[in-house]
UniProtKB/TrEMBL annotation:
Superkingdom as given in the UniProt entry: Eukaryota
Chain ranges of the Sacsin/Nov domain: 42-145
Protein name: Sacsin/Nov domain-containing protein
SUPFAM superfamilies: ATPase domain of HSP90 chaperone/DNA topoisomerase II/histidine kinase
Lineage per the UniProt record: Eukaryota, Viridiplantae, Streptophyta, Embryophyta, Marchantiophyta
Pfam families from the UniProt entry: SACS
Signal peptide region: none
Length: 1305
């Protein structure tokens, strides 16, 4: 068979192109150039060749039962052997090429599909295949036994020249079937036709990009091909497939509709994208014929509506001429028709009558498709049909955005105009309406309503009665989902918003407002609030919309106009108050016109999230939020209304009955009884039944012109004292409360006496009503004092005692008591208060009743409870008279005792002191200087005879018994009550002044007395601990006279400070104490460790020297013995650990050494060597006394020392086996070393020695040094550590890395 195909090719070459003829074709060159120019002009972009190949595949013929598909594979293999860097392979499962198809490829404009548009063919030019020459020079076709290739240059595979390119076929043997099989098998099929395109090097990237961006919508409108697969060079396989549902015929208008699904699967990964399209196909008669389409009699217009997001990676537009063009219309749907395109297929010929005719049909087709799709979706809602679209989503296809192309904008405008005249808007069937669900209406009949109103109407429509009330309107509401998701589409369709007038008509219907729940009612008020803001109160005040609770719980509605014109007061009370207030509302109805809101509504208001409706009730409807307290305040305010209201007396009494009962019921706090607004004050009904106003309870604290309110007489004490007295003189300044207050408030009392006490307290707290003894004072003289009975007098005393604080502000009132002789006495009749004395029992023992006028006990009884007020009035106003008498008695005793005329009775003296204390005696300056304190003879307070001492020569308590015989301790003589009198009145110090301790020590020394060690310890503890508080004068006085104690053995002796030493060097102290009794060392009492530092400060100030600073050391060196030594191989001292320890110690900031100073201290040790000696050397320590210039010397054997970079230590191992000797050697070495490296800092050197002693036994092991430095919180500085690490002696360089943790950077 292949031989016949090959023969056919040879025939074409010879007969048509004169290949192999004797003379060449004279038109060959011209034809070649014409084809080249035509192809380049028609297809200006490389990517068009793919569209042309798809178009050819679409027009191919396929066997029955075969799914037409096209596969494309891009590989880097050169399967044709022409040296191509990449190859594009196309496989198609069509029937295969026939001779007529080959002949058409070898011609120009001789397409086999011309004139067959009505049969579904989309190719027409006859040069479509020539577009492949834009990316390849030699395309190959292997189909149905044909194996040919074409060349754009005319050069054939054997090198010969065909003179004409593009259309001259050449038979080829490769690629063979075996070569192609691995590639075609990648798609799992064996194609009938394979096109192989060896790509030009400069076209590979553009082909790659086109294949990557290939749109799945390319196959959307193809009639035959339903699957395209692309294998990319990176191995990714992309499968695009279309799946159509069965078509459905539409009679009006005549059209086909069906659903199709495009899917795109990428592998590996198996990621899938898909999109369902509603497809509408409708034919229209051709109205504008053109030469290219003379055989076409009707236009087939197809619209595709994507139900989901269109599949990504589309680089094409949304206008198709079976295959996608580059036109992006901006319309939310896809249009396909037999458009005439420009030669490059990029865009439409907008000036073509043919295209204008097709575009003129789009609006008609769209509206028909839209209407059909809406009803289809509405009927399919809830059926579970997967290939459908929610009805509200259909409106997304209404074009709202202007098209960038004028001709397409005309299409969009025509669509919108048509839709505005159609019943196309989905209405909400559950918004108070009575039509069938899924009904559509004309846009002008529909209304867009707020979500709040919609929710209200939806909920209201659940009640059939409410639904009938609401559905009387002439409009319908737009479906909620349509309105919320497609606002711009509704605007295009000119669906209006609900007008304010229409809203008013809905709201002005009390029938359904009374039937809805309280929550819905509040939402209605939210709408009313916003409506009022928009249209003003004048238009909403007639709405009957404010709920109230009437008699027997019936709910009604008021309009704002009614509330205003009829002066209706609207209240809303908390749920816990509503039940309580309801019965009281009935009692107050005759006096006040008000209404409460229903309790269920109040509860809903508290729980409401949106508070706009609640605010409208409060701000516009003037509904007052009220509880029992606020209700009571409103009642009180109205009781002071001007002019007075009818039956005001009964109203006022009822108000206070309500307030008192509310307090007793626990619904009103007594402390929160509401004061009246403004400064009007409470209105009070007096005992004559008249109403008194302008009373404010707080006024009586400062304004004496206001009235005094008295409790009702039947429950008060004031009638006993004030009933017959014209006080205050102006009767208008006092109000006596009506007895009816008690009658109404205690009408239902079961225990009247008990409740009367509570009621009195209530009147007192509320009105400021008072009874004696709590009545306020008025600055007027008090009449009839001489006629007071004893009971009246005692009541008066109680009254006055409560007002002692107003003594300076009510001069007239108080003066009337002080200038009138009205006080009853026992033997002196009525007296002025200032001439009377209180009958004090102690005073009565001293002063007889006949001598002074005592307040009468027989008339008044016990008056001691009223001593304060009587004292204020003048009684005991001058207690100095009694105290002066006692003081004179004491002075007399002092004189008689001093003169030896009489002995003193101690109990009598104590009695005198008690009298003075009882009368709170305040001595004058003269009396204070003369006052003495009696000290009995003997006892623990004093060793001497009885005496009288000045207060400054006494102390209250001498705990340590140090001042016995010096300062008497009153605590040993008198009671604690009198001790307070001595301290506060006479100024006896509670504690001994610290200066007295220093005086006491000097006195002890000067008296030559020897006191016990315990007493000395107590006294020196006081001296030391008080030292910092002493001023310089006391210290200098002490320094001049003071001696100190020194310890000699177990005995103490007085020593001059200059002759004593502070033993700060315990080793030398022991040496001196062992060999001699001198020098004298200061004494440290037992337990003095707590204040040893202070004690040393005292010793130092007095002139005591430190032992370490006064010792002179002398060593007798024998150079001959020093020569006999050897260098030790096992150093005990000179190690790296010693150097680190010294550096860590002297790095303390308190020593103030810089880094150079520290390194200078260490420098002598860096070159030190350690040697062992075989002899000891005598060393003497001498100390000189500053007092006698005498010296004391002790000797010791020198076991080791440091001198001039050599450290000598004794070698005798037997001698060093003794721990004491070894420690002495170590101490001597360290002392000489530290004194030499720190010659100017002996105190630092001494402290350094003590520190190094703790490390010498371990030979300054680095680990031990590190541990000790950490324990004492001693740090190293980096520069010091580096100084050691870089030292000249390698054996002295630190080795432990642990030291770095101590470095302070």
């Amino acid at each position: 068979m292949a031989s016949s195909q090959k023969a056919f090719i040879e025939t074409i070459r010879k007969e048509k192109f004169s290949i192999g003829a004797d003379r060449p074709n004279p038109l060959a060159e011209s034809l070649h150039q014409a084809i080249k120019c035509l192809s380049a002009e028609l297809y200006q972009k490389d990517i068009h060749f793919i569209s042309e190949l798809i178009q050819n595949a679409e027009d191919n013929s396929y066997a029955a039962g075969v799914e037409p598909q096209l596969d494309m594979l891009l590989t880097a293999d050169d399967i044709t052997g022409v040296g191509a860097p990449a190859t594009l392979i196309l496989c198609n499962n069509e029937r295969g090429f026939e001779e007529r198809h080959i002949a058409a490829l070898c011609s120009i404009g001789q397409s086999t599909k011309k004139g067959q548009r009505n049969e579904g063919y989309i190719g027409e030019k006859g040069i479509g295949f020539k577009s492949v020459f834009l990316v390849t020079s030699t395309p190959y076709i292997i189909s149905n036994g044909f194996r040919i290739r074409f060349s754009d240059s005319g050069v054939e595979s054997n090198g010969s020249m065909a003179e004409i390119g593009y259309i001259v076929p050449e038979w080829v043997e490769r690629p063979t079937d075996e070569t192609l099989r691995p590639y075609s098998h990648q798609f799992g099929c064996r194609p009938s036709t394979v096109i192989v395109l060896p790509l030009k090097p400069d076209k590979i990237s553009s082909v790659k990009a086109e294949l990557k961006s290939f749109s799945a919508e390319t196959i959307l409108f193809l009639r035959r091909i339903t699957c395209i697969r692309i294998r990319h060079m990176d191995g990714e396989l992309v499968t695009m497939r279309r799946s159509d549902s069965s078509r459905k015929k539409v009679e009006k208008p005549a059209a086909d509709m069906f659903w199709t699904q495009l899917s795109l699967v990428r592998s590996p990964g198996n990621t899938k994208e898909s999109c369902d399209y509603f497809v509408w196909e409708q034919r229209f008669p051709v109205t504008s014929s053109v030469d290219q389409r003379l055989e076409v009699t009707s236009w087939a217009l197809t619209l595709a509506f994507p139900a989901q997001q269109r599949i990504a990676c589309s680089s094409h537009g949304d206008i198709f001429a079976f295959l996608p063009s580059q036109v992006r219309s901006g319309l939310p749907f896809v249009i396909n028709a037999d458009f005439l395109l420009v030669s490059s297929r990029e865009t439409l010929r907008y000036d073509s009558p043919w295209n204008k005719g097709i575009l003129g049909c789009v609006a008609t087709a769209f509206c028909a498709a839209m209407e059909c799709l809406l009803r289809e979706s509405a009927s399919a809602s809830g059926t579970g049909n997967s290939r459908t679209i929610a009805v509200h989503q259909v409106y997304k296809f209404v074009p709202v955005d202007k098209c960038p192309i004028p001709q397409l904008e005309e299409v969009r405008s025509s669509i919108v105009s048509r839709l505005q005249r159609m019943e196309i808007v989905l209405a909400a069937a559950n918004v108070g309406s009575n039509f069938v669900k899924g009904s559509f209406f004309h846009p002008s009949k529909c209304r867009q309503i707020s979500s709040t109103l919609r929710e209200i109407l939806v909920k209201a429509s659940l009640d059939e009665t409410i639904s009938k009330c609401v559905s009387r309107s002439s409009w319908v509401a737009v479906d909620a989902l349509v309105q919320s998701n497609h606002k711009e589409q509704l605007r295009q369709l000119q669906v209006p918003q609900l007008s304010d007038q229409e809203l008013l008509e809905i709201l002005d219907d009390s029938n359904w407002l009374l039937r809805i729940s309280e929550q819905l009612y509040l939402e209605v008020l939210d709408i009313v609030s916003s409506l009022t803001d928009r249209v003003g109160l004048d238009r909403t005040r007639y709405l009957t919309i404010v709920k109230y609770e009437g008699e027997r719980g019936a709910v009604g509605l008021f309009s704002l106009r009614q509330i205003t014109e009829e002066n209706i007061i609207m209240y809303m009370s908390p749920p816990d108050c509503g039940d309580y207030l309801s019965p009281w509302m009935l009692k107050f109805n005759p006096y006040i016109k008000y209404r409460f809101m229903p309790q269920q509504l109040v509860k809903a208001m508290k729980e409401a999230r949106n508070k706009a409706g609640v605010a409208w009730l409060k701000d516009v409807a003037k509904v007052q939020e009220i509880d029992v307290k606020a209700f009571a305040k409103g009642l009180v305010d109205r009781s002071n209304s001007t002019p007075p209201m009818p039956h005001e007396k009964e109203y006022i009494l009822l108000v206070w009955e309500f307030i008192y009962s509310s307090i007793q019921a626990g619904v009103l706090n007594k402390a929160s009884v509401p004061p009246p607004s403004g400064s009007r004050g409470f209105a009070i009904v007096d005992e004559s039944g008249l109403v008194k106003r302008n009373y404010t309870r707080e006024d009586y604290n400062y304004d004496l012109r206001k009235s005094m309110v008295l409790l009702p007489a039947s429950c008060s004490e004031w009638p006993l004292l004030l009933s017959d007295r014209a006080w205050p003189s102006d009767p208008r300044s006092r109000i006596r409360m009506s007895e009816e207050y008690i009658n109404v408030c205690l009408a239902y009392s079961e225990n009247r006496s008990r409740d009367l006490v509570v009621l009195k307290t209530f009147f007192s707290d509320t009105f400021g009503a008072r009874d004696l003894p709590y009545l306020p004072l008025v600055d007027e003289p008090f009449p009839g004092l001489e006629d007071l009975s004893s009971a009246q007098s005692l009541l008066l005393f109680r009254w006055l005692e409560n007002h002692l604080g107003s003594f300076d502000s009510c001069n007239k009132f108080w003066s009337s008591f002080m200038t009138t002789a009205w006080v009853h006495t026992d033997e002196h009749g009525l007296q002025l208060p200032k001439n009377c004395l209180m009958p004090h029992v102690d005073l009565l023992r001293l002063l007889d009743r006949s001598e002074v006028p005592y307040v009468s006990v027989s008339f008044y009884g016990d008056v001691n409870p009223f001593s304060r007020v009587l004292c204020k009035l003048g009684v005991l106003k001058e207690p100095e008279s009694a105290c002066t008498a006692v003081f004179k008695q004491i002075r007399r005793l002092i004189k008689e005792c001093s003169a030896g005329l009489r002995s003193v009775d101690r109990s009598l003296v104590e009695k005198y002191y008690h009298i003075l204390n009882g009368f709170c005696w305040k001595p004058t300056t003269s009396q204070f200087r003369k006052m003495k304190i009696y000290i009995p003879a003997g006892g623990v307070a004093s060793d001497g005879p009885a005496s009288w001492r000045s207060p400054e020569d006494c102390i209250l308590v001498d705990k340590n018994q140090l001042f016995k015989g010096v300062l008497p301790s009153l605590g040993e003589i008198y009671s604690s009550k009198l001790l307070l009198f001595f301290e506060k009145t006479l100024g006896v110090p509670r504690n001994v002044h610290f200066s007295r301790y220093y005086d006491l020590w000097i006195r002890w020394y000067e008296d030559g007395m020897h006191y016990s060690v315990g007493n000395c310890a107590k006294l020196w503890e006081k001296i030391a601990t008080c030292w910092k508080m002493c001023d310089a004068t006391v210290k200098e006085k002490f320094k001049v006279k003071a001696m100190i104690l020194t310890a000699t053995g177990k005995e103490l002796q007085y020593t001059t400070p200059a002759a004593a030493f502070i033993p700060d060097d315990l080793t030398r102290r022991k040496l001196f104490m062992v060999h001699t009794n001198t020098p004298a060392f200061v004494w440290y009492p037992a337990g003095s460790s707590a204040y040893e530092a202070e004690l040393n400060d005292v010793y130092t100030f007095l002139g005591v020297r430190r032992l370490s600073e006064c010792i002179k050391t002398d060593v007798e060196m024998d150079p001959g013995k020093l020569c006999i030594c050897k260098l030790t191989k096992d150093p005990m001292f000179v190690t790296s650990g010693l150097l680190v320890a010294i550096l860590g110690f002297i790095s303390r900031t308190k020593y103030g050494l810089s880094s150079r100073g520290r390194q200078a201290v260490l420098q002598p040790l860096l070159e030190t060597v350690e040697k062992e000696i075989f002899y000891t050397f005598p060393i003497s320590y001498t100390i000189r006394s500053d007092v006698s210039s005498a010296t004391t010397t002790v000797e010791q054997q020198l076991l080791g020392f440091w001198d001039q970079s050599v450290l000598y230590r004794v070698q005798d191992r037997e001698l060093l086996a003794d721990a004491t000797v070894r420690r002495e050697m170590q101490t001597q070495v360290l002392e000489t070393m530290c004194s030499k490296i720190l010659p100017d800092s002996p105190s630092i050197a001494c402290s350094l020695v003590n520190f190094l002693k703790t490390l010498v036994e371990c030979r300054f092991d680095e680990a031990a040094v590190e541990h000790e430095l950490q324990r004492k919180n001693l740090k190293l500085y980096n520069e010091d550590f580096e100084f050691l690490r870089d030292g000249p002696n390698a054996s002295l360089r630190p080795q432990s890395e642990g030291f770095r943790s101590l470095i302070l950077m």
